[in-house]
Amino acid sequence: MWSYILKRLLTAIPTIFLVLLIVFTLIRLIPGDPAELMLYELDDPAVVQQMREELGLDKPIPVQFFIWLGNLATGDLGVSIRTQEPVLPALLERFSVTATLVFLAVSMAVMIAVPAGMIAASKQNSRTDFAIVLVAILKLSLPSFWVGLMLLLFFGVYLQWLPTVGYVELSTDFGLGVLYLIMPVISLALTEIAVLTRMMRSGTLEVLRLEYVTHARAKGLSEAAVLSRHVFKNAFAPALTMLGLVMASLLGGAAVTETVFSLPGIGKLVVDSIYARDYPMLQGALLLIAGVYVVVNLLVDLLYGFFDPRVTLK
Amino acid sequence: MKRLLRILSRPNGLIGGLMLGFVLLIAATGAVYTPYDPTGQDYLARFEGASATHLLGTDMFGRDLLSRLLAGAGVSVTVSFLTVLVAVTGGVIIGAFCGYWRGWFDRIVMMVIEALMAFPGILLALALMVAIGPNKYGVVLALALAYLPSVTRLVRGTVLSLREKEYVEASVALGNSTFYTLIRHVLPNSLGPLIVLSTTMFGWVLLAESSLSFLGLGVPPPAPTWGNMLAEARGYLMRFPWLGILPGLCISFALLGVNLFGDALRDELDPRNN
Amino acid sequence: MLTATTGRFVLSSLTAALLFSTTGSVQAEVVLNVAYTQDLRGTNPGVDRDGNTDTVHMHVVEGLVAYAADFSIKPMLAEAWTVSDDGLTYTFKLREGVPFHNGEIMTSEHVKWSWDRFMAPETKWRCRSYFTGEDGPEVVSVETPDPLTVVYKLASRSATFLGNLARFDCGNTAVLHTESVDADGNWLEPVGTGPFKFGDIKYGRYIDLLKFEDYASRSDPQDGYAGAKEVLVDKVRLQILPEPSVSKAAYLAGDIDLLSIEPADLAEMELAPDTQILSAETAVWDTLLINTDDPVLQDKRIRQAMAQAIDREQIMAIVSEGRGRANPSPLPPVSSFFTDAEWEQLPFDPEKAKALLDEAGYDGQPIELLTNKRSGAYYERALIAQSMLKEAGINAELKVLEWGTQLDAYTSGEYQMQSFSYSPRLDPALSFEMITGEQSRKVWNSPEAIALLDQAMVVSDKVERQGIIDELHRRFIDEVPAIGIGHRVEFYAIRDSIDGFKPWGAGKQIFWGVGPK
User: Fold this and answer.
1) For residue B253, what are the contacts with CB-CB under 8 A and spacing of at least 6?
2) Using the beta-carbon criterion (under 8 Å), do B222 and C398 form an inter-chain contact?
3) Is C446 inside any structural domain?
4) ipTM, two decimals
5) C324 in the same domain as C473
């Protein structure tokens, strides 16, 4: 298995290199540059020029790319143009926020969606099934910022149960940290619950058709026992792949939720960096996000083997 | 045609189909007729409630909300449709060739696709929007590129697995070119999952356009879309909630229709049902 | 929201803090929570900067002189100053016993060291060119005859020297302690003399300003960024909340005490419980820039037609919800130089506009108006102006860009028209300087205007200067390199329980003198 992991990680290197190349080119295709944005009303063009030179923006793009790669090799990701903070620690701090958020949201989604999907499938075409599917679809039909603002207005402003701004690390103060995370986690989980419920339902339906389920039922096992002992593992496997993809994309793409709940996460950071043309920060962030994507997918494939014994890792 | 009837005979298919039909009807209406100019402003009639002159009231610039919803339907549906079209066409072509040629071509292209997958879609679209510049077609291109990888992977996977099937081998053995075989036998077989993916994608795009507007870069105003109307109304949530509720309802309605219809479609196209 | 942290109570709302402090049972930390739209650009005054960052820096550092509420220049770290008869020698007497944040006492050596650091090109001070003879008088020498005296010698007379020293975007030419940098001269953090020092700076979350207990306040009354500075809270926490709908919710939920609001939210916030709405007309200039080199727009008659097709009163009424007043000049009405002459304008007259267009032979060439969706109503102004231009028969098209992209067009001068805003210029000459000159980003490049401006920059006699400014305004109205809509009104929502906050025309917040009632 270790050689499999090593092989997977090695094959990921060209992917990540390509990601970097795309990011590097794309961001420099964007009109406007960070020096201009920072100094727009400046009366002295010489300062803008000086700043460009300082940031290395006067050099050809390929040269800039290799300088950046060289620095990367020594572990130097540079300094943010937007805020002057060193890129690496900033990324790690921001990423830990998003990771906490996404991990909790996905866990919550799994805990709700798995039973919901399986129940719906086991009672296919009943009222329960229809209700579960309808609720799932309804949740899918709401833009996430809209849901977030509604939660904010209801629980934060109207009921005043939950704080509306700020973030406290769970490691600093667990109880308080949880309070700050409730709304964003719910808001992020809602969509995932919907997607996952539907995956789980169709996965379960497929497994229920298989012979061994009929055998299990014939043995006189209760429906609940059949579902939890025999169906769950096999039905969850395809949902797991989906979950991996969702999780990987959320780790960078929770920008909207992070904006609504003013969480200092990495998605928000990327959006801010795009607007400020903060090249070093953006490059670092997308490198991290791509790396996480690779690792999460690897983990999912490893777990897949656990849930679906037919799959062997080569 | 028979299939369509069968889909519509399912309850979710019928309801979803009707809802979808209604949305398309509105979109078509909005394209040719609106009671007022959807971008025409009237400063003396801002934030008006529903009345005989303005059936759904007016917004912050005194623009007729009904007209904007109708016209917005047209733009939203067009953007979503074009995005799906571009993503699916691109994905099918690239995916089919990858699955067909395999080898180095496949490897390189799939590496690029992998790399694109590693970007969260919404961030990729955002960066592309800034680079391309704000217009309707920028949104289409940006979102299509964000969704292209999943189509490509789907089609490539199907082609790869179908190549090994007996009837495909038989077709080649009969002297048909592999290319002909690909078009004749392989693509029609991947149509089912593709249609399902397309309906889901149609819904995603409606939502994504709205999220892009929220982050500051959707279809540029003043042209209305449901998404940018919703995003623009967020500052008035407490005072003039209908400005946000109406486009929000439209989006949810359309998505509900698309999803219900898509479910029915998936059940119908499921080979085990035939 | 109430939590115990290390034996003290941190309260998210000032109101709650007061309830507890009056019971006397616990020692409460009084925190003022303020919504802030952007992260800090950095801690290096006059170097890492933008408008919001300047505001924060102005609470931590101070210079020799400062802007008073009416935009006049008053002493700050200087006790007083004298100017020689030839106008070339400025002698500053420093205040005695002013401590830096590290406890050391400020002397003329610190002033000289700070100046030399700013003037070194590697510091990248954005205002260096104002003192090298390029964009202002050259500072020939800075001498320190004794620990409390600093003498600046200039190469030529200047009307703007003191004003430039006080500029926010120059970091107030701050007097800093040498511990602000490391042994190699690299920036660490500002060790200044201001009434606040930096606490935690958490990017994407908040910026903390802590009360500097040993601050040596002046005795003259509080006056803009000059005069006494008495800090009435323990901490000001600037919460980074870029999304207006979110910061509004945070205020209504009681998590924020002070919030800058958009005019569109006025009606709603006025109904919020225990809330006062404060406002001030600022020197932020909202305008529509016109590219006078454009093939179509180089015809003065077409520009005049546009000026007469646009009803600035109407635009202002809508974007400010009836609270602002339109005016035609780049000069802010709060300025003492704004007289009747500055009200002179081409009146709103669509018929006249049509006639001018005919005369100029305009036949429907499209004119692209750039704008963006940032806060500050750039988009709203452009949208309304576009429909007015269309009314008058001008084929104006709106193009909504992302801010960075629009700025690129601004800097290169490659556009036809754009909706733009300038941060406050507190000197009348600078109000014209921002649009006048040969650089590609400046719209007004007529040689006469540039010559007049050069004069306004050096003449310091008030009456003579007024004459030049009036002439600049008259020509500005005639040549229409830009159509001024007006100067922006800023609105704040603040808890009733908080006293002392005064919005200021300079568009800068002041957090000293603000505290519980």
Assistant:
1) A141, B19, B23
2) yes
3) yes
4) 0.84
5) yes
